[in-house]
Design a protein that fits this description.
Elements: E1 14-19, H1 21-25, H2 30-38, H3 43-51, H4 57-66, H5 72-82, H6 89-98, E2 103-110, H7 111-120, E3 128-136, E4 139-143, H8 158-167, E5 170-176, H9 182-187, E6 190-193, H10 195-204, E7 209-210, H11 215-227
Parallel strand pairs: 1-2, 1-5, 2-3, 5-6, 6-7
Antiparallel strand pairs: 3-4
The chain binds magnesium ion.
Amino acid sequence: MKTTGANSASGRPHPAVLTDFDDTAAAQNVAEMLLEQFGDPDWKNVRQRFREGQIGLKEYQEITFRNIRADRATMQSYVKGHANLRPFFGELWGFCQANDIPMAVVSQGLDFYIEALLERDGFKKVPVYAVNTEFRRGEISYHYNHAYPGKESQGNSKGFVVKSFQERGCHVFFAGDGQSDLEAARLADVTFAHRTLAKFCDDESIPYQPFEDFRGMLLAVREYSRNGQGPNVGRRAPG
Ligand SMILES: [Mg+2]
C-alpha cells in the first residue's frame, strides 16, 4: 500500500475517500441484478437464509454465484449495458486525482462486475478492495485479500480497509448503504449513509451525512482539504 497518506503540508491528516459499491457508487445492487438475470432460480431462497442470519454474506455470495448460468464476459457486458454510477462520482474522482487524495471502492461484492462498470465509464484506475475472483473451467474461486489477519475465513472487512488508511495518517471519508458498511461507519472519520446504514447509524448514534449521490461528499472533501473544516472534523481522538 502506498504511504502518501501522511499529514499534508497544513499538518492536517490527508483525506482519503472510500465508497461502497452496490447501491452506493452504483445506483443499483449490481450483484442482485446479475442474480436476477443469470442466477439459479433458487437464489432468492439463499438470500432469505442470509437475511434470517442462517448463513453469512460470504456464504450467500459464494453459493449464489457458484450456481450462476453465465460466464465472466457475459456478466460484464450485462453490467455495462444495465448499471450506472451515481452522479458526481467522476467529479469526486477528478478532484481526488488532481489533489493527490486516495480514493477507492470498498465492497463485499465481486471484483469483475465492479471493474466492468468502472471501466465502461473511464474509471479503470480507481482501486477496488473487493472479493477477488478467478474463473476457471466454468467455476469461480474466491479470494479474500482484505481481511483481518487470522480472520480470513470470515471474508473481507471494510473496517480493516478503513483502518489501514487511518494507520497511514488519513482522515477517512466513507459512503455506504448496508449492513456490511456498519463496521466501516463505526471507524470512519466522516460517514455518508443512506438506506439501512443510516438506520444502523441512528441506532448507534454514529454521526453521518445523508447520502444521495457524491455531490455532498465532493463538497465535504473539498472543504476539508482547503480549510480543514467540515462534518465531524476533530471527532476522532488523537492517537
Ligand atoms: Mg451497498
